[in-house]
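Q: Can I borrow your eye for a moment on a structure tokenisation matter? Would you mind producing a protein record, from residues through to fold? Write it directly below this note and I will take it from there.
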Amino acid sequence: MRALRITLVVLGLISVSAAIAFWQRYQIAWNLLWILKPSQAFHEVVPKPNYGRAADWAIRSLPDGTKASVFYVHPTSYLTGKTWNQPLAAGYEDEFLLQNLMPPQVAPFSDHAVYAPHYRQSIIYGLQLIDPGPQAIDLAREGVASAFEEFLKSAPTDTIVIVGHSQGALLLSGLLHELRSRPEVMRRIAVAYLIGWAVPEASLNGVIPMGVCRGESDTGCLISYNARDAGDYYIPRLVRHAINVTDGGYRELENEPIVCWSPVRADSAVSGDCAADGWLEIKTPPEDHFDFLMSKGWYHTVEIPLFADELRSDASGRVEAHLEATSFAHQ
């Protein structure tokens, strides 16, 4: 009888532990992010990108009749590895990035010339304020800035559209910060889409030299949103406390307002709107969504493709408005 009681107690403890683990599975999974910490100390992976070479561009498209040139920076696909930044050669062979992530994100902007650089992206573990994470982000930013300079030389149009998702949006925040002293470039930007990374409203006061797009014909403005479920959801700390660019480097997002622009229209596939916490709250879940990395109700993977038609229309409208405004200014 004593052995039976011990067995029942052990089974009960196992059952309770399993129930608690299942209830906290999302939190537990993200707390184990340290497993993905690179085994090597930070060093600059070589070679550096050379954006004068076609090989260092993932996409350089030039459709007929293009009215704008799109500079697109892809999200994180480098989840595990020995180095803090993905080597370029590995980026060339990154099938998940090139075949799964990029095509549906680029599609809404494919009416225009699209330039998308390979860059030495930071590993996902580096996207935290934990040394040497900021160094990995700086290395990625350096590549994006270099690609943008080559883009400015090669872009077939004066009108520019900036597009980035997740890590790409973070890096473009840094790029826009550096462009504060170059008004001749800023005047060319019809709109900047920084999607899938929290952009604090405070950043628009000096850090990012753009205001939020309000009206449908606003240009030279910024659009950002992060999508989550309206019901039961779990957003990882990595996103809730995202790194943000400052004058002095980076800081962690605190409980502060973030930019939210809603792409939802009457004919959209889902319903929703910006919530009080600054997130885009999706009230009708998308059909093809799966929980990303064990995060419940976080629509990170579909934030752009879910609104492909809406973004295509929005970008086209703002490009036309920008062309009209610049044409009027030159008269």
